[in-house]
Amino acid sequence: MNGLIHIYCGDGKGKTTAALGLALRACGSGYKVILAQFLKSWNTSELNILDKVENVLILRSKKPGKFTWQLNDEEKAALKIENNRIFEKAIEVISCDKKILIIFDELIGAIEKNLIDKEAVVDFLKTKPLHAEVVLTGRNPDGELLGLADYISEIKKIRHPFDSGVKAREGIEY
Asked: Looking at the keywords, is Transferase present (predicted)?
């Protein structure tokens, strides 16, 4: 079975949640799942359970510890190096298993903000192992990424409590 490329994008809540739903399904079918997270350094509730699942590998950084718009140029350069390292590590693991799902969570945002080497990502997507199922999440994928995807699902915000001042709630938004 050939693996395909999914993009979950848009300004609505649920891109990561959709990707993790697919991870749950894949785990139930014996897949190895790699969750490589970018631009998220805070602890989120889904990590509490995923860390206990034997066939799930989580790759993420503790950097930057703040939002990207708060980073100075030096911090951005360091984060780009770290993101490239996480991406390369995820690719190394892919070649090891026949049934594998890799989720590059917020990779689209890292590309958009020039916090990862886009050329390396595109090269990987064009030459990925046939058996690897790949998911990219983030808000604004460019035309090149969209052109490589087999699935494109847009999650559109109609209303979100944050717009009314409601803070993120543990177990729901993080």
From this structure: yes
- Counting every residue, how long is the chain? 174
Tens-digit pLDDT profile for residues 62-87: 765 778 888 899 999 999 999 999 99
CATH number of the domain within which 118 lies: 3.40.50.300
- Among positive and negative, which fits the CA dihedral 26, 27, 31, 35? positive
Q: d(Cα 64, Cα 56) in Å, to the nearest integer?
A: 24
List the one residue out of 77, 3, 68 whose CA is nearest residue 34. 3
**How many independent structural domains does the chain possess?**
1
Rounded alpha-carbon distances, angstroms, from residue 74 to 51, 67, 71, 98, 107: 31, 14, 8, 39, 20
Tens digits of residue pLDDT in 144-153: 999 999 999 9
Q: Rounded to whole angstroms, how far apart are CA atoms 51 and 53?
A: 6
SS3 168: coil
Question: For residues 159 and 16, is the Cβ–Cβ distance under 8 A?
Answer: no
pTM of the model: 0.92
Structure-token pair, residue 7: 């993009």
Identify the domain containing residue 78 by its residue range: 5-140
